[in-house]
Design a protein that fits this description.
Structural class: mainly alpha
Number of domains: 2
CATH superfamily of the largest domain: MetI-like
Distance between the termini: 46 Å
Radius of gyration: 24 Å
Strand content: under 5%
Shape: globular
Helix content: 55-70%
Order of helices and strands: EEHHHHHHHHHHHHH
Number of strands: 2
Length: 289
Protein backbone atom coordinates (compact mmCIF):
# COMPACT_ATOMS: atom_id res chain seq x y z
CA UNK A 1 0.00 0.00 0.00
CA UNK A 2 1.45 3.32 -1.01
CA UNK A 3 2.24 5.65 1.83
CA UNK A 4 0.89 9.16 1.84
CA UNK A 5 3.23 11.90 3.00
CA UNK A 6 2.36 14.78 5.28
CA UNK A 7 4.53 17.90 5.38
CA UNK A 8 4.45 20.79 7.81
CA UNK A 9 4.64 24.42 6.69
CA UNK A 10 4.11 27.46 8.95
CA UNK A 11 2.49 25.30 11.61
CA UNK A 12 -0.17 23.94 9.25
CA UNK A 13 -0.64 20.35 8.10
CA UNK A 14 -0.38 19.94 4.35
CA UNK A 15 -1.34 16.77 2.50
CA UNK A 16 0.89 15.67 -0.37
CA UNK A 17 -0.72 13.06 -2.64
CA UNK A 18 1.40 10.19 -3.99
CA UNK A 19 3.28 10.68 -7.22
CA UNK A 20 0.92 8.57 -9.31
CA UNK A 21 -2.03 10.68 -8.11
CA UNK A 22 -0.27 13.84 -9.26
CA UNK A 23 0.61 12.26 -12.59
CA UNK A 24 -3.02 11.24 -13.14
CA UNK A 25 -4.16 14.76 -12.21
CA UNK A 26 -1.71 16.41 -14.60
CA UNK A 27 -2.66 13.99 -17.37
CA UNK A 28 -6.34 14.80 -16.89
CA UNK A 29 -5.56 18.53 -16.96
CA UNK A 30 -3.57 18.13 -20.18
CA UNK A 31 -6.44 16.24 -21.82
CA UNK A 32 -9.01 18.84 -20.77
CA UNK A 33 -6.73 21.68 -21.93
CA UNK A 34 -6.16 19.96 -25.28
CA UNK A 35 -9.90 19.53 -25.83
CA UNK A 36 -10.46 23.21 -24.99
CA UNK A 37 -7.58 24.57 -27.09
CA UNK A 38 -7.92 22.36 -30.17
CA UNK A 39 -10.93 24.23 -31.66
CA UNK A 40 -8.97 27.49 -31.51
CA UNK A 41 -5.93 25.87 -33.14
CA UNK A 42 -8.10 24.35 -35.87
CA UNK A 43 -9.86 27.67 -36.46
CA UNK A 44 -6.53 29.50 -36.70
CA UNK A 45 -5.09 26.99 -39.16
CA UNK A 46 -8.30 27.03 -41.21
CA UNK A 47 -8.19 30.82 -41.38
CA UNK A 48 -4.77 30.55 -43.05
CA UNK A 49 -5.98 28.16 -45.75
CA UNK A 50 -7.24 28.94 -49.23
CA UNK A 51 -10.83 27.94 -49.89
CA UNK A 52 -9.88 24.91 -51.97
CA UNK A 53 -7.73 23.56 -49.10
CA UNK A 54 -10.54 23.80 -46.57
CA UNK A 55 -12.67 21.24 -48.40
CA UNK A 56 -9.96 18.73 -49.29
CA UNK A 57 -10.40 15.14 -48.09
CA UNK A 58 -8.78 13.84 -46.05
CA UNK A 59 -8.45 17.22 -44.35
CA UNK A 60 -4.95 18.64 -43.96
CA UNK A 61 -4.04 20.12 -40.60
CA UNK A 62 -1.44 22.61 -41.83
CA UNK A 63 -2.12 25.15 -44.59
CA UNK A 64 0.04 24.85 -47.69
CA UNK A 65 0.80 27.59 -48.39
CA UNK A 66 -0.41 29.82 -45.54
CA UNK A 67 -2.25 32.97 -46.59
CA UNK A 68 -3.76 36.01 -44.88
CA UNK A 69 -6.34 36.42 -47.62
CA UNK A 70 -9.26 35.54 -45.33
CA UNK A 71 -8.24 38.20 -42.80
CA UNK A 72 -7.94 40.83 -45.52
CA UNK A 73 -11.33 39.89 -46.89
CA UNK A 74 -12.91 40.09 -43.42
CA UNK A 75 -11.45 43.57 -42.95
CA UNK A 76 -12.74 44.64 -46.36
CA UNK A 77 -16.23 43.46 -45.40
CA UNK A 78 -16.31 45.58 -42.23
CA UNK A 79 -14.70 43.53 -39.45
CA UNK A 80 -12.87 46.50 -37.91
CA UNK A 81 -16.03 48.60 -37.81
CA UNK A 82 -17.93 45.74 -36.17
CA UNK A 83 -15.20 45.35 -33.54
CA UNK A 84 -15.30 49.10 -32.90
CA UNK A 85 -19.08 49.05 -32.48
CA UNK A 86 -18.93 46.14 -30.04
CA UNK A 87 -16.13 47.85 -28.11
CA UNK A 88 -18.10 51.09 -27.75
CA UNK A 89 -21.25 49.30 -26.62
CA UNK A 90 -19.52 46.82 -24.29
CA UNK A 91 -17.14 49.26 -22.58
CA UNK A 92 -19.85 51.89 -22.16
CA UNK A 93 -22.14 49.29 -20.62
CA UNK A 94 -19.41 48.16 -18.23
CA UNK A 95 -18.70 51.70 -17.05
CA UNK A 96 -22.38 52.53 -16.58
CA UNK A 97 -23.10 49.28 -14.74
CA UNK A 98 -20.13 49.65 -12.38
CA UNK A 99 -21.03 53.20 -11.35
CA UNK A 100 -24.76 52.68 -10.90
CA UNK A 101 -24.31 49.19 -9.47
CA UNK A 102 -21.96 50.44 -6.76
CA UNK A 103 -24.29 53.33 -5.90
CA UNK A 104 -27.24 50.94 -5.57
CA UNK A 105 -25.40 48.11 -3.80
CA UNK A 106 -23.85 50.29 -1.09
CA UNK A 107 -27.07 51.31 0.71
CA UNK A 108 -28.39 47.74 0.44
CA UNK A 109 -25.22 46.50 2.12
CA UNK A 110 -24.91 49.15 4.83
CA UNK A 111 -28.38 50.58 5.54
CA UNK A 112 -30.61 48.08 7.32
CA UNK A 113 -34.14 49.34 6.81
CA UNK A 114 -37.47 47.57 6.90
CA UNK A 115 -38.11 45.79 3.64
CA UNK A 116 -34.50 45.84 2.44
CA UNK A 117 -34.64 42.14 1.57
CA UNK A 118 -37.83 42.72 -0.40
CA UNK A 119 -36.15 45.55 -2.31
CA UNK A 120 -33.20 43.30 -3.08
CA UNK A 121 -35.51 40.53 -4.26
CA UNK A 122 -37.38 42.93 -6.54
CA UNK A 123 -34.07 44.05 -8.02
CA UNK A 124 -32.75 40.58 -8.80
CA UNK A 125 -36.12 38.99 -9.70
CA UNK A 126 -35.89 40.14 -13.36
CA UNK A 127 -32.83 37.88 -13.69
CA UNK A 128 -35.23 34.92 -13.60
CA UNK A 129 -37.19 36.19 -16.61
CA UNK A 130 -35.81 35.04 -20.00
CA UNK A 131 -34.68 37.97 -22.11
CA UNK A 132 -36.65 36.78 -25.14
CA UNK A 133 -39.90 37.30 -23.21
CA UNK A 134 -39.29 41.06 -23.18
CA UNK A 135 -37.94 41.29 -26.71
CA UNK A 136 -41.08 42.61 -28.43
CA UNK A 137 -41.95 45.15 -25.69
CA UNK A 138 -38.32 46.27 -25.64
CA UNK A 139 -38.36 46.82 -29.39
CA UNK A 140 -41.56 48.88 -29.15
CA UNK A 141 -40.11 51.04 -26.37
CA UNK A 142 -36.85 51.60 -28.26
CA UNK A 143 -38.79 52.54 -31.40
CA UNK A 144 -40.89 55.10 -29.52
CA UNK A 145 -37.77 56.56 -27.92
CA UNK A 146 -36.04 56.78 -31.29
CA UNK A 147 -33.15 54.61 -30.11
CA UNK A 148 -33.26 51.88 -32.75
CA UNK A 149 -30.05 51.37 -34.70
CA UNK A 150 -27.98 53.40 -32.23
CA UNK A 151 -25.29 52.94 -29.61
CA UNK A 152 -27.53 54.45 -26.96
CA UNK A 153 -30.29 51.90 -27.51
CA UNK A 154 -28.00 48.88 -27.16
CA UNK A 155 -26.19 50.36 -24.16
CA UNK A 156 -29.48 51.10 -22.40
CA UNK A 157 -30.79 47.56 -22.95
CA UNK A 158 -27.57 45.86 -21.85
CA UNK A 159 -27.34 48.15 -18.83
CA UNK A 160 -30.84 47.23 -17.66
CA UNK A 161 -30.14 43.53 -18.17
CA UNK A 162 -26.78 43.58 -16.35
CA UNK A 163 -27.54 45.90 -13.44
CA UNK A 164 -29.33 43.34 -11.17
CA UNK A 165 -26.37 40.94 -11.29
CA UNK A 166 -23.94 43.77 -10.55
CA UNK A 167 -25.97 44.93 -7.54
CA UNK A 168 -26.19 41.39 -6.18
CA UNK A 169 -22.45 40.67 -6.49
CA UNK A 170 -21.28 44.07 -5.22
CA UNK A 171 -23.67 44.08 -2.27
CA UNK A 172 -22.35 40.72 -1.09
CA UNK A 173 -18.76 41.87 -1.36
CA UNK A 174 -19.41 45.21 0.34
CA UNK A 175 -20.77 43.31 3.34
CA UNK A 176 -17.40 41.62 3.87
CA UNK A 177 -15.61 44.97 4.33
CA UNK A 178 -15.30 45.97 8.04
CA UNK A 179 -17.56 48.83 9.07
CA UNK A 180 -14.81 50.19 11.31
CA UNK A 181 -13.05 51.61 8.26
CA UNK A 182 -16.08 53.73 7.41
CA UNK A 183 -16.57 54.70 11.05
CA UNK A 184 -13.00 55.99 11.18
CA UNK A 185 -13.58 57.98 7.99
CA UNK A 186 -16.83 59.37 9.42
CA UNK A 187 -14.93 60.63 12.47
CA UNK A 188 -12.68 62.56 10.09
CA UNK A 189 -15.77 64.13 8.52
CA UNK A 190 -16.22 61.90 5.46
CA UNK A 191 -19.73 61.47 4.11
CA UNK A 192 -21.12 58.09 3.11
CA UNK A 193 -20.55 58.89 -0.55
CA UNK A 194 -16.94 59.85 0.16
CA UNK A 195 -16.47 56.63 2.12
CA UNK A 196 -17.87 54.66 -0.79
CA UNK A 197 -15.43 56.06 -3.35
CA UNK A 198 -12.40 56.41 -1.06
CA UNK A 199 -12.67 53.17 0.96
CA UNK A 200 -15.22 50.68 -0.35
CA UNK A 201 -14.48 50.93 -4.06
CA UNK A 202 -10.66 50.54 -3.77
CA UNK A 203 -11.11 47.52 -1.49
CA UNK A 204 -13.68 45.97 -3.83
CA UNK A 205 -11.47 45.64 -6.89
CA UNK A 206 -11.94 41.82 -7.11
CA UNK A 207 -15.74 42.18 -7.13
CA UNK A 208 -15.60 45.10 -9.56
CA UNK A 209 -13.34 43.08 -11.85
CA UNK A 210 -15.72 40.12 -11.69
CA UNK A 211 -18.70 42.32 -12.54
CA UNK A 212 -16.80 44.09 -15.31
CA UNK A 213 -15.81 40.80 -16.92
CA UNK A 214 -19.32 39.31 -16.71
CA UNK A 215 -20.96 42.45 -18.09
CA UNK A 216 -18.40 42.77 -20.87
CA UNK A 217 -18.86 39.13 -21.89
CA UNK A 218 -22.64 39.48 -21.93
CA UNK A 219 -22.55 42.63 -24.04
CA UNK A 220 -19.77 41.47 -26.36
CA UNK A 221 -21.28 38.05 -27.09
CA UNK A 222 -24.94 39.11 -27.28
CA UNK A 223 -26.48 38.48 -30.69
CA UNK A 224 -30.30 38.37 -30.66
CA UNK A 225 -30.92 41.90 -29.35
CA UNK A 226 -28.15 43.40 -31.47
CA UNK A 227 -29.47 41.76 -34.64
CA UNK A 228 -33.00 43.06 -34.01
CA UNK A 229 -32.23 46.54 -32.69
CA UNK A 230 -29.72 47.40 -35.44
CA UNK A 231 -30.39 47.40 -39.16
CA UNK A 232 -27.66 49.42 -40.89
CA UNK A 233 -24.22 48.11 -41.82
CA UNK A 234 -22.50 50.90 -39.87
CA UNK A 235 -24.10 49.75 -36.59
CA UNK A 236 -23.41 46.02 -36.86
CA UNK A 237 -21.79 44.51 -33.81
CA UNK A 238 -19.17 41.77 -33.99
CA UNK A 239 -21.62 38.91 -33.45
CA UNK A 240 -24.00 40.20 -36.13
CA UNK A 241 -21.07 40.59 -38.52
CA UNK A 242 -20.01 37.00 -37.81
CA UNK A 243 -23.51 35.73 -38.51
CA UNK A 244 -23.53 37.44 -41.90
CA UNK A 245 -20.77 35.08 -43.06
CA UNK A 246 -23.57 32.52 -43.39
CA UNK A 247 -25.53 33.19 -46.57
CA UNK A 248 -28.05 31.37 -48.72
CA UNK A 249 -25.21 30.24 -50.97
CA UNK A 250 -23.19 28.74 -48.12
CA UNK A 251 -20.65 29.57 -45.44
CA UNK A 252 -17.32 31.19 -46.22
CA UNK A 253 -15.42 29.12 -43.66
CA UNK A 254 -12.06 30.80 -44.12
CA UNK A 255 -13.44 34.27 -43.51
CA UNK A 256 -15.68 32.91 -40.76
CA UNK A 257 -12.71 31.46 -38.86
CA UNK A 258 -10.63 34.61 -39.33
CA UNK A 259 -13.48 36.79 -38.06
CA UNK A 260 -14.23 34.47 -35.14
CA UNK A 261 -10.62 34.53 -33.96
CA UNK A 262 -10.43 38.32 -34.20
CA UNK A 263 -13.70 38.64 -32.27
CA UNK A 264 -12.59 36.23 -29.52
CA UNK A 265 -9.17 37.75 -28.93
CA UNK A 266 -10.40 40.71 -26.79
CA UNK A 267 -12.44 38.33 -24.64
CA UNK A 268 -9.50 35.98 -24.06
CA UNK A 269 -7.15 38.88 -23.33
CA UNK A 270 -9.56 40.43 -20.83
CA UNK A 271 -10.13 37.13 -19.04
CA UNK A 272 -6.39 36.42 -18.77
CA UNK A 273 -5.89 39.93 -17.39
CA UNK A 274 -8.67 39.72 -14.79
CA UNK A 275 -8.91 35.99 -14.03
CA UNK A 276 -7.40 36.16 -10.52
CA UNK A 277 -9.56 39.06 -9.43
CA UNK A 278 -12.55 37.46 -11.14
CA UNK A 279 -12.20 34.29 -9.07
CA UNK A 280 -11.56 36.26 -5.88
CA UNK A 281 -14.57 38.47 -6.50
CA UNK A 282 -16.92 35.50 -6.85
CA UNK A 283 -15.54 33.55 -3.88
CA UNK A 284 -14.88 36.21 -1.23
CA UNK A 285 -18.46 36.65 -0.15
CA UNK A 286 -19.61 38.09 -3.46
CA UNK A 287 -22.47 35.62 -3.83
CA UNK A 288 -24.04 36.13 -0.43
CA UNK A 289 -27.75 36.89 -0.28
Amino acid sequence: MASRSISWSSGEQRFNPPAYDRIALYLAMVIVAAVAVFPFVWAFLTSLKAERQIFTFPPALLPSPATLYNYGRAVDHGLLLALFNSSVVSLSTVGLVLVTGALAAYPLARLHFRGSQIVLFLIIAPMMIPGLVNLVPTYIVMAKLGLLDSYEGLILIYWVHSLPLAIWVLRGFFQTIPRELEDAAAVDGATRLQSLWAIIVPLSQPALAAVALLVFLNAWNEFVIASIMTSSAVMRTAQVFLYLNMTDVGVNWGEMMASALAINLPVLALFLLLQRRFIAGLTSGALRF
